[in-house]
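Retro notes
What went well: the complex prediction finally ran end to end.
Inputs used:
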Amino acid sequence: MNLLYWILIILGVIVLYIIIAYNSLVVLRTRINNAWSQIDVQLKRRYDLIPNLIKTVQGYVKHEKTVLNELTKARSQLVSGSMEQKAKASNQITDALKSIFAVAENYPNLKANENFKMLQEELSGTESKIAYSRQFYNDSVMSFNIKIDTFPSKIIANAFSFTKKEFFKVEGKEKENIKVDF
Amino acid sequence: MYSEISTNKRNSVFLFILFFILIGAIAYVINLFFFQGYLFIIFAAVIAIAFSLISYYSGDKIVLSMVKAKEANKKEHAHLINSVEGLSIAAGIPTPKIYVMPGQQINAFATGRSPKNSSVAFTEGSLQKLSRQELEGVIAHELSHIKNYDIRVMVLASVLVGIIVFASEIMLRSFLWGGMSSNDNKGGRLNLIFIIIGVVLLILAPIVAQLIKFAISRKREYLADASGALLTRYPKGLADALKKIKNDTSELKTASNANAHLFFSSPFKKKQWLVSLFNTHPDISDRIQKLEKM
């Protein structure tokens, strides 16, 4: 009788653990999906702002069409694709935008334009939102992947076939922008 | 970084346990000298509950109107709104309501019950005097208060302090106005000692409660600094903002003892005679040092 009690208690604890571990994996996976759509929202927002920027800048910088063309080209590459393609196109847009704002430094009239100022604020705001949503996405992916890799949640993850998620990678230039120096 | 967060959480749990011990002690004293009739106690309990509910559900609005905060608009404060939205994404919380309050002092606070019902407020001075990265550091600190549920902890702490102050006040008054006379025939010496201990406890309880609240507030500041730095991934921004605050001499007229614990840094600039136990905020140089070590 006593032994039976113990077995029942241990079984209960195990079942409870499975439920908790399974639910927390589901919560983490949902958070990753949310974070991904958050990135998408911000990428779309930037995508929509770029034509306005080009329209405003065009009138002022007649001799430097190449930067604008580069931006247009980068923008057109941001189609719905895999995460890697998106990350790559997004990085290209970031670089193109940076060179446009660098060029704009030489045109005082453009810099004084109210519309341009507004767009610059909006775009740099969106730019940092992209960076932050990517950071949140990667943080979420990290805690999900750690959970899948560590014992004992590893067993649950394998049993219910949870698979590891991919990070949203940043290459080259942009990486320098966000300092991670702890 | 993560270990800092967990020690801070443990410490606040400990402090809350102290709170409840204190409330238990008061309840014990009340029980010991219970001779006033039920009606009176029920009346007091109803008032205490009503008071707690009001301060829990509309404490944020009261504080925001106390400091004359106005909601930020997209036209004037585009940069502030963008930064708060961005860092909210990084923290994984919904964007809180954003307010701007008058005053040249660099300061800010967050309030509310939960991430869904929360607000952040910044002084005009902080928008003018801080650079982009410094402001982001301050925003990240405030959003961490929201994310870590510090805002709820502080609202609850204020409510508990309020209850303790209220209960001990009522009990002291009822002692002085007639409780004694109905009791002095039976007890003798032992009873007298108990009464003295009870009175002393009731006098000390509100002071101790305030001290605990201040200690929680100080702990929470370090925690928010640490997790704020985790959001921006740039502890230097916040450290630089703190340095500017250290050298800032502007006063904040709307701040009072009632809301000082909410702010990003202590709104009182003058050296006070109060010892550090009564400070709502940890020493600013100490905070800078901790950030620079991260």
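What we learned: The radius of gyration of chain A is 24 Å.
What to try next: split runs per interface for comparison.
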